[in-house]
Amino acid sequence: MAACKGLFLGYNFEDSRRFKKAGSKCVVTCVAKSVVKSVVKSVEKLVMKVLIFSILLFQMAPLFADLEVTEGWARATPPGMPMGAIYAKISNTGGSDIEIIGISTPVARAAEIHQSIEVEGMMRMREITPFIVSAGETVLLAPGGKHIMLMGLQEGLKQGDTFPLRLQLSNDQAVDVKVITGGFGQMSAPKH
Fold this sequence. Notes:
Blueprint lengths: L1 H6 L8 H45 L6 E9 L7 E10 L5 E7 L3 E12 L2 E6 L3 E3 L4 E4 L4 E8 L8 E8 L4 E9 L10
Parallel strand pairs: 1-10
Antiparallel strand pairs: 1-2, 2-7, 2-8, 3-6, 3-9, 4-5, 4-8, 9-10
């Protein structure tokens, strides 16, 4: 190998007789080994970059969820009230149906999607399960209709406060929503 290195400078340091016999053959071998090493290093770097990119993309998957939740808001509740409600616009921008399989927020013990319905002249609430948002569909959660029911509130919801809400989806994604609290009896989303 030392002889090959010397050939690049035009001289065989080990043995000039060997250089005359094997000269061009040795140069080709050295160049080939050098090219192979260079290609192997380039491939290793490329594989590492692809691996790192794949890991980052997997970690960022929730940022690219097919379910968009906008205009998340709640009404203020009186102190000691154990229940509240969240309203929002939920849009499925993907090509397949998505089921919301779980809801969580630090402000309540439990959260479920409910529908307000009239039964024998009385308004009642029923849990909607499963709650599926069809591909291309937008569902409006609004007072008097579908809403996210908060049960076991830790404290009353105060006007102007914000809190996080997480929807767990059937496609192994999650959507995080910032909810703003409006006034008592408010019927539409508060202005930011």
